[in-house]
Design a protein that fits this description.
Copper Amine Oxidase, Chain A, domain 1, globular, 3 domains, alpha+beta, six-stranded mixed sheet, Aminopeptidase, 31 strands
């Protein structure tokens, strides 16, 4: 009898150890910036990798998250980085660079789970696994600069180069490291080829309308060719003009006979510009270019598109006190509309109430309206609650003029921390065809700055500052549209 009881007891113990009950299973804990994060769905350990609910990324790591249900794709944007992952796919993208991850996103109980270590480390956080406490610890890396709340702004850069409509005196020109020694053209079938003999360096391309022109500005370059205007008269170009636009910039203007597509190829001593007829597909705003638009169209109109970030079901970031980013962006954007209209601009809003728009719908609205500029209003969030300040974003490789003017105007008026102009791949500035910026007006993860951004008077100040920066940008645009090289 005793043997039978003993055998029964051993069998029960074996079952307990082999098949632990749900109530006895240990769930991994998650600690972010010294705070235990509670979620409605617990983190999961899958194949030795910790996976966390997608909502944790936006609410606790201070990132902007966009989930495309049909494609089962998630885009995460923070700290000048854009991460793109797809459910059950081991290929991920960081700022459009592909790489292989060992733990792809998963759908569990209709919730999206993403790999903690990949997300954390790519959002500039340290990720540590504590086996003894069975928890993952994430800590944002310390900022190199101590950004205390609303200090005196840094001195403005008075040496910023601005285009001038006046031709400089050649005797007063600076000695530039590059010289444009020759400008030639040739025609081959449907192509017009412009050869600019100049050493490799920075350049900026601008499309102008009424009439159609293509402008190539060569930075740090002196004009070394004789004359100014050359009759070309090819299929796509009527005239080529070359001039010293500023002491450090040589400008080449191609007077076009119609709409063209173009490609620039830079070698050691030659910048090659190839022009071909623009097809219907080139003009279609419904198409999404894979790399985005680096060269933006400058339109000769008075229209600007203003976008209030997030809205409706998309609350955006959640602030230190639990308030929503969307409740900052809309009133600030509406105040910006008023400020711009008082300066004579025509303003098109992507939304004027608490409604939700897909990101590509915002792009579509902008490209259909075809304004002279686009600005999207947002508020920032960081894992480190001490971080404050203003950032203005433009797409990789695009001109910074609009962003620089708006950023410096905000800092001058509000006295916030200047976190500078930065580049990123946000959808609304990547696929819009005109000069576009995204303004992060401050950090709602900081209690002081959250209160600052929710104050109506401060929203008006920020709106007025953005409007002033846009007005200055339009003045420069008008000089570009009307001045000769």
């Amino acid at each position: 009898m005793k043997k039978r009881y003993l055998l029964t007891g051993l069998l029960i113990l074996c079952c307990l150890f082999s098949f632990p009950m749900a109530g006895l299973a240990k769930e991994p804990a998650l600690v972010i910036n010294d705070k235990v994060v509670k979620t409605d769905v617990s983190p999961q350990i899958i194949d030795g990798r910790m996976m966390i609910p997608l909502r944790v990324v936006s609410e606790s790591l201070g990132a902007k998250v966009n989930w495309l249900n049909q494609e089962k794709t998630v885009t995460i944007e923070a700290n000048q980085k854009t991460l793109k992952l797809k459910v059950n796919t081991k290929i991920a993208y960081v700022n459009d660079q592909s790489l292989t991850i060992d733990a792809p996103p998963k759908l569990i109980q209709n919730r999206t789970f993403v790999p903690l270590r990949f997300i954390g480390e790519n959002l500039d956080s340290d990720v540590i696994w504590d086996q003894e406490k069975y928890q993952a610890i994430i800590k944002a890396r310390e900022e190199k600069i101590d950004n205390s709340y609303l200090p005196t702004p840094p001195e403005e850069n008075t040496n910023q180069e601005k285009p001038s409509s006046e031709k400089p005196n050649p005797e007063n020109q600076v000695k530039n490291p590059r010289v444009l020694t020759k400008a030639e053209y040739q025609e081959s079938e449907d192509q017009t080829i412009i050869n600019l003999w100049v050493e490799s360096g920075q350049y900026k391309v601008t499309e102008l309308t009424n009439p159609d022109r293509l402008v190539i500005d060569l930075s740090d370059t002196s004009k070394g060719v004789d004359g100014e205007a050359t009759t070309v008269n090819t299929k796509h170009v009527s005239t080529m003009r070359v001039g010293q636009f500023t002491p450090t910039t040589t400008r080449v203007v191609l007077e076009l006979k119609g709409k063209v597509s173009y490609q620039l190829n830079q070698s050691a001593n030659l910048l090659n510009v190839v022009l071909v007829p623009k097809t219907t597909s080139d003009n279609s705003s419904s198409q999404q270019p894979g790399e985005g638009y680096v060269h933006r169209v400058i339109n000769d109109n008075n229209i600007i598109v203003v976008d209030a970030g997030h809205g409706g079901k998309d609350s955006g970031g959640i602030g230190a006190s639990g308030r929503y980013e969307k409740d900052i962006t809309l009133p600030t954007a509406l105040k910006l509309k008023t400020a711009l209209e008082s300066r004579g601009f025509q303003v098109e809003m992507t939304r004027s109430d608490d409604t939700f728009l897909e990101l590509m719908d915002i792009v579509g609205i902008t490209n259909r309206v075809n304004p002279f500029a686009f600005v999207s209003i947002h508020a920032n969030k960081a894992g480190n609650p001490s971080v404050t300040g203003v950032e203005t974003y433009t797409f990789y490789g695009t001109d910074h003029t609009l962003a620089d003017l708006v950023q410096s105007s905000i800092i001058s008026k509000t006295q916030q921390v200047d976190r500078k102009v930065k580049e990123a791949g946000f959808v609304v500035i990547k696929y819009t065809q005109v000069p576009s910026i995204l303004v992060e007006t401050g950090f709602i993860s900081n209690q002081g700055e959250e209160d600052f951004l929710f104050d109506s008077n401060n929203q008006t100040q920020i709106a007025e500052a953005i409007a002033e920066g846009i007005a200055k940008f339009k003045e420069i645009q008008n000089k570009t549209l009307t001045s000769s090289p």
